[in-house]
Amino acid sequence: MAADQLLDGECQIWWARPDQVPDDVLTAVVPEAEQRRAGRYRQRVDRQRSMVGAWLLRAAVAVQTGERPGEILVDRTCTDCGQQHGRPRLPASGIEVSVSHAGERVAVAVTRLGEVGVDVEFTPLAAHFDRELAENTLSSWELAHLDGSAHPGADFHRLWVRKEALLKATGHGLRMPMSRIEVSPADQPPTLVSWPLDIPVDHVRLAMVNPGPRHQAAVAVLTSEPLTVRELDADLLR
Q1: Does this UniProt record's set of keywords contain Transferase (predicted)?
Q2: Among 69, 40, 68, 42, which residue's Cα sits nearest to residue 54?
Q3: CA distance linking residue 58 with residue 76, whole number of Å
Q4: DSSP β-bridge partners for residue 111
Q5: What is the pLDDT of residue 115?
Q6: Binning pLDDT at 50, 70 and 90, where does residue 85 land?
Q7: pLDDT for the residue 92
Q8: Is residue 38 classed as helix, strand or coil in its secondary structure?
Q9: pLDDT, tens digit, for every residue of 212-238?
């Protein structure tokens, strides 16, 4: 089995930098509709992140299906309005995916375990703690734990990415207030403690992943099975 094939019980996290993939490789794979969407960003680095995310998703999935990256069909139909800006899905493939990008990192999660969400955040000022933001996104129980932290800024970002990953896995996005989700304290293994959804908390798996300096990242998978996370670099796909 190739080193980049999905193993049983595994979620792969593929990492890329916004400048890691040549433009001609991107345009050869990414559909015109997604190229136009990326082109709406004013900043070049934002366009690069969007394009690399679209390429990385297809390249990572192609390894599993045996197709060419440009042949991977991605459905982004929004369940609210029907437009093509919703969470990415791969119909009839049995593969679940998620994409996130921020700062110097682009991430794609790939798994067969269940619906997945990955979130990466750029945190250059990790020591800065925004108390007002924390009060709007954390429960009183989570705030109480954070008040006892020696590094509240960094710990808050760790909680944030856990919650974002969960909301991406369920498809709710920011339509559900983050304060309605409780996760374990930042200095403990990541777990879902409580939320208002019908999905039992023991049918959800959370893991922190390693995006490198000045970033935080987490992945969530809706499964009751044990979760193994493996991180890979986009250079393996070229």
Answers
A1: yes
A2: 69
A3: 13
A4: 11, 96
A5: 97
A6: low
A7: 83
A8: helix
A9: 999 999 999 999 999 999 999 999 998
pLDDT of residue 3: 64
- Average predicted confidence (pLDDT) for the chain: 94
Q: Is the pTM of this model over 0.85?
A: yes
Where are the chain's structural domains?
A: 10-237
- Mean pLDDT across 120-133: 92
Q: Calculate the alpha carbon distances from 236 to 5, 93, 139, 232 in Å.
A: 11, 22, 41, 8
Q: How far apart are CA 126 and CA 150, in angstroms?
A: 12
77 - beta bridge partners? 84
Amino acid present at 20: Q
Say how far apart CA 46 and CA 52 lie, in whole Å: 10
15 near 231, Cβ under 8 Å? yes
CATH topology of domain 10-237: Ribosomal Protein L22; Chain A (3.90.470)
Q: Using alpha carbons, select from 15, 22, 206 the residue that is nearest to residue 99.
A: 15
151: enclosing H helix or E strand: none
Rounded distance between C-alpha atoms, residue 34 and residue 38, angstroms: 6
> Which of 49, 222, 84 lies closest to 57, judged by CA?
49
- Sequence-distant (6+) residues with CB within 8 A of 76 are 84, 85, 86, 87, 88, 89
Distance CA(178)–CA(176), nearest Å, equals 6
Q: SS3 of 57, please?
A: helix
